[in-house]
Known about the structure:
Elements: H1 2-12, H2 24-44, H3 46-77, H4 84-100, H5 105-133, H6 138-160, E1 174-177, E2 180-183, H7 184-206, H8 208-218, H9 220-225, H10 230-256, H11 263-278, H12 283-300, H13 309-323
Antiparallel strand pairs: 1-2
Helix pairs in contact: 1-8, 2-3, 3-7, 3-10, 3-11, 3-12, 4-5, 4-6, 4-10, 4-11, 5-10, 7-8, 7-10, 11-12, 11-13, 12-13
Amino acid sequence: MTVLRSDKRLTDSPSILRGGHQLGPLIFFLLAMAVLVAVLVALRGPLPVAQTTINGLVTGAYFALGAAGLTLVFGILRLINFAHGDLLTFGAYIALATVYLGLPFWVAVIASVLITAATTLGFEAVIWDPLRRRGAGTLQMILTAIGLAFILRHGIQLIAGTNPQTLGVDVVSTFNVGPLTIGQTQAWVLIAGYLVLVLLGVMLRFSLLGKQLRALSDDLDLAEVTGIDSDRLILITQALSGGLAGLAGILFAASVGSITPNVGFFLLISLFSATILGGVGNAYGALVGGIALGLVQEWSTLVLDARWKTAIGFVVLVAMIIIRPTGLLGQKRLVDR
C-alpha cells in the first residue's frame, strides 16, 4: 500500500528525474536544430549533412549514456561527481584488459559494465555513505570527488601506462547505406547505445523501480515515510550510474579507436555540458542533451575545422544558460534537502 501511495504521488508531481511537462523549450530547441540543418543543407548539400548526422548520433550515444549516469547520482544524492568521467575511462580499460586476456569483445563489454558498477558500489560504501552520515557539505563532497578522479586517473596510468591503447575492434571496415558510409563498429555503437537509452527511459517512466527512484529524487524523507527503502535505492542508483559509465567508456573507445588515461577529463566536460543543456538532475534531459550535443558538435565540422567542435558545443551550452538557465527539461527550482 505504501508503494502505491508513492506511485500515485509520482503521477501527480514533477520529479526532477521526470522533468514535469515543460515541453515548450524542448520544442523550440528542436525547431532551432531543424533550422540549423536546413541552413547546413543549403550550404553544403544533403549528403555531407546526413553523413555528419550519423557521426553525431554515434557521439551522442556515449554522451547521453555518460550524462544519464551523472545526472542520476545528482538527482538522488545531490552529488556532483567529478570522478564520473574517469569512471568511463576505467570501464574502457577494464574492457581492454579483458580483450588482452583473449576473451571475446562481448564478454569484455559485460565485464566492464559489471566491474565498473561494482566499483561505484565500493566507493559508495567506503566514501560517499560515510561522508553523508557525518554531514559532509557540498564543498567537501566536491573536493572528495575531484580527489577520487585523480586517484582513478593516476591509478590507470600506473598500471596501464600513458600511451594510447586500442580495444582491437575493427574501425576500418565500412558498409554503405545508400550513398552514406558507416563503419561496422559505428553501427554496433549506434544499435547498442540507443537500445540501452530506450530501455533506460522506459525503466524510469514505467517500472516500479523508476517510480521509486523519481519519488526518492523528489523528496527523500517523504519517500522513506511511504515505505521506500532509500538505502537500497541509493545502491541501485550508484550501480546503475557505474554501469552506464562503463558502457559509455566502451562505446567511446570502440568508436574512436583508442583511449588514454586522460580522456575521462575531456569527456567529463562534455558530460556536464549535456547535463546542463538537458536540465541538471533530469535523466530525460541528459539523454536529450547528450544526443543534441553530439549532433551539434559533428555538424559544426561542416563549416569549421574539426578541432573546434568541442568549443562549438560550449557555445550552444552558454547560449542555453543565457536563454534558459534550467536547461531544456529542467525545473525552475531545485529543492535542497
